[in-house]
Amino acid sequence: MHVSQIAVAAFAILAAPAAAQDYPASPAPQSPMLAYAPVYDDAPADVFAGPRMEIHGGWDHVGLRLKATSTDAAGNAESAALQAPDDGFTYGGSLGWDIALSSTLIAGVEAGIEDSSIRECAEVYGLDEACIKAGRSVEVGGRIGQALSSRVMVYARAAYVNSRVKANYVDFEGILDNQSAKANVDGIRLGAGFEAAVTPNLYLKGEYRYTDYNNYSLTANYSDGSSDRVDLSLDRHQILGGIGLRF
């Protein structure tokens, strides 16, 4: 081999590493899930702070207890009772605002409205029928949460609730007077749930709620001295799923 050929070969060997340094290595392939995963630069609590709106729906269980009493002018009373625990579907929406109290602690307020499919009818005795329908509910409350990461938060909540209930009592035999009552009942709602951030603005949630309502009674007095009275008590269990936007 000529000296010139040896020199060219040596130069090629020495130049190869330098040339490699001029071109950075191609990045390693990235998982598609990581490529589209949201990136959060803020503290975990900041991800869940700000105004929000959501829709939700799920299982609704209402325990309804109704007692209807008719008293004639002589003071003779006849009554009928109905217990109607029933399952149905609830659906609604809410607006809220959360703030970060620390890097992981969140507090917020919210207001919501919902309706229910629950309607229960039963024969009390003979041909008598009593029906109870769960109507709309409105709530105002607050919550406190703990960010487990920049994507998941757990929380507990409490709220004041006002719900509408309609009760009907029909006596097809004509022994008792037919009765109908529509009532707005107040209660306290407690719950717990979680939120999962899908993107910086979109989240999914799951929640359990228990509502205890005040007992309600309605009395109608008539000119002949007779009267009708309806006593109502109820509680509620709900398991919900929802989707929301944070601004």
TrEMBL record:
Listed GO CC annotations: membrane
InterPro entries given in the database record: Beta-barrel_OMP (IPR027385), OMP-like (IPR051692), OMP/PagP_B-barrel (IPR011250)
Chain ranges of the Outer membrane protein beta-barrel domain: 59-247
Superkingdom of source: Bacteria
Signal peptide boundaries: 1-20
Main location: membrane
Localization in the cell: Membrane
Keyword terms: Membrane, Signal
Family membership noted in the UniProt record: Belongs to the Omp25/RopB family.
Protein name: Outer membrane immunogenic protein
Organism of provenance: Sphingomonas prati
